[in-house]
């Protein structure tokens, strides 16, 4: 029998992995039995199983890993891109994010004196710091943020309507801007009056509500400031009540109003009516000018009724008082009012009001020196704690809300400007 070698021999010998013996002498094809045995030995599946199987399985593993990786990437992307509201509507049960939601988060604290410039009086740079606190409102949270905020006790998630009502984001920003400007104006007058300046001049009466079906309903609007009635000046609430009560139901009067923002003046004519409750309520005389029931006008019925409610005096800064300018940029809302007043007092007073300490302050301020409640107290408290603040002053009704987030920081609750000044003086001593 003549044996022949094949050209595959060299290639087979060059490979290190075990391979079928391709260099084995091939029998003469004329010997059928020998050829059959040779082929079975070379092409046996058992001999090829070690080399062929990995080549089949490896691509399948790669495809599976690719699919799993792609799914994970898609889930991560969805968590950051999909609005939480969509997920809330899919998940069974009711959640705050089923409707559009917004998150209230800690933001920053800023040294109040850095935002104030006083002209017309000497100032004294303090060593201590009075800081106001700000919160951030995220009105478009995604699925990941929803999960993260739900596990963060310094973040609150509310239905957007609770925070903004029906206002758009732009309308809310404008509202916050106006509230900030009014807060600065009020804080300036309150601080200067506290220091003994004759700073306040009442220049009219504005209102935040118009009584339904009253004479004012079709003639006046929110944002008007009443400055005269039948050419008689209206400077404060008492003057408006006196002029109105001196007239009778059925009298026609001319009311002069100025736009709160632009100052544009116009006259409106209306016919007075009697108050609907004049004959039903001993306090009817208090509401006959359209003011709240707790305002005692001291005039017997019948009296003229305009239909204005929730009255406030427009107070302007006296021209010979120190002029105070503010620069708060994108920060809005009224919650820094108390901080503004305290900083103005500190800047215009010799010595250290804070005793050199770092004090965070939050609370609104009214013309009578009353401190009002604010939103985001726990977020502001957490931000102050994290910045190492020594003392934080908050509205007294919200002291219990702030305490769980204060850590080792000292908290004081106050109801008036005087109480806040006393708290600072005690710190300095």
What can you tell me about this protein's structure?
There is one protein chain. The chain has a six-stranded mixed β-sheet. Strands 5, 6, 7, 8, 9 and 10 form a six-stranded antiparallel β-sheet that branches. Strands 2-11 form a two-stranded antiparallel sheet. Helix 12 (399-402) links the parallel strand 15 and strand 16 (410-414). It is of the alpha+beta class and 429 residues long. The protein starts with 8 loop residues before the first helix and ends with a helix. The radius of gyration is 40 Å and the shape is flat. Helices cover 35% and strands 22% of the residues. It has three domains: 9-43, no CATH class; 110-130 and 172-197 and 320-428, 2-Layer Sandwich (Ribosomal Protein S5, domain 2); 200-317, Roll (Pdz3 Domain). The protein contains 13 helices and 16 strands. 33% of the residues are buried.
Beta-strand proportion? 15-25%
CATH architecture of the largest domain: 2-Layer Sandwich
CATH first level of the largest domain: which class?
Answer: Alpha Beta
Number of strands: 16
**What's the total helix number?**
13
Q: Describe the largest sheet.
A: 6 strands, mixed
- What level of helicity do the residues show? 25-40%
Backbone CA Rg: 40 Å
Shape: flat
Total number of domains: 3
Low-confidence stretches: 1-17, 86-90, 281-299
- Biggest sheet strand order reads 4-1-3-12-15-16
- CATH fold label of the largest domain: Ribosomal Protein S5, domain 2
């Amino acid at each position: 029998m003549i044996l022949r070698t094949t050209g595959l021999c060299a290639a087979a010998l060059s490979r290190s992995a075990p391979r079928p013996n391709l260099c084995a002498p091939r029998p003469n094809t004329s010997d059928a039995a020998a050829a059959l045995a040779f082929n079975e030995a070379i092409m046996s599946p058992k001999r090829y199983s070690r080399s062929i199987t990995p080549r089949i399985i490896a691509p399948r593993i790669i495809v599976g890993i690719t699919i799993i990786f792609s799914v994970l990437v898609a889930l991560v992307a969805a968590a950051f891109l999909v609005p939480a509201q969509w997920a809330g509507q899919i998940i069974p049960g009711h959640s705050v994010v089923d409707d559009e939601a917004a998150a209230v988060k800690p933001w920053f604290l800023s040294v109040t004196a850095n935002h104030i410039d006083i002209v017309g009086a000497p100032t004294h740079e303090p060593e201590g710091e009075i800081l106001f606190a700000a919160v951030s409102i995220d009105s478009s949270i995604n699925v990941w943020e929803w999960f993260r905020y739900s596990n963060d006790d310094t973040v609150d998630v509310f239905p957007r309507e609770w925070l903004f009502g029906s206002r758009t984001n732009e309308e809310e920003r404008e509202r916050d801007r106006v509230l900030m400007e009014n807060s600065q104006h009020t804080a300036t007058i309150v601080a200067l009056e506290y220091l003994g300046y004759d700073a306040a001049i009442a220049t009219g009466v504005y209102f935040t509500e118009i009584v339904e079906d009253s004479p004012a309903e079709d003639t006046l609007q929110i944002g008007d400031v009443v400055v005269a009635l039948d050419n008689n000046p209206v400077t404060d609430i008492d003057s408006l009540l006196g002029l109105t009560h001196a007239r009778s139901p059925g009298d026609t009067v001319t009311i002069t109003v100025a736009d709160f923002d632009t100052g544009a003046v116009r006259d409106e004519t209306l016919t007075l009516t009697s108050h609907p409750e004049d004959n039903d309520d001993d306090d009817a005389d208090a509401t006959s000018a359209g003011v709240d029931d707790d305002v005692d006008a001291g005039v017997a019925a019948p009296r003229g009724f305009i239909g204005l409610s929730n009255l406030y005096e427009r107070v302007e800064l006296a021209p010979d008082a120190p002029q105070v300018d503010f620069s708060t940029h994108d920060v809005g809302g009224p919650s820094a009012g108390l901080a503004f007043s305290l900083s103005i007092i500190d800047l215009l007073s010799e010595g250290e009001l804070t005793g050199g300490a770092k004090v965070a302050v939050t609370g609104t301020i009214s013309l009578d020196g009353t401190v009002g409640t604010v939103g985001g107290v726990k977020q502001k408290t957490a931000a102050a704690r994290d910045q190492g603040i020594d003392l934080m002053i908050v509205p007294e009704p919200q002291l219990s809300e702030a305490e769980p987030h204060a850590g080792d920081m000292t908290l004081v609750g106050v109801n008036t400007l005087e109480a806040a000044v006393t708290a600072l003086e005690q710190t300095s001593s």
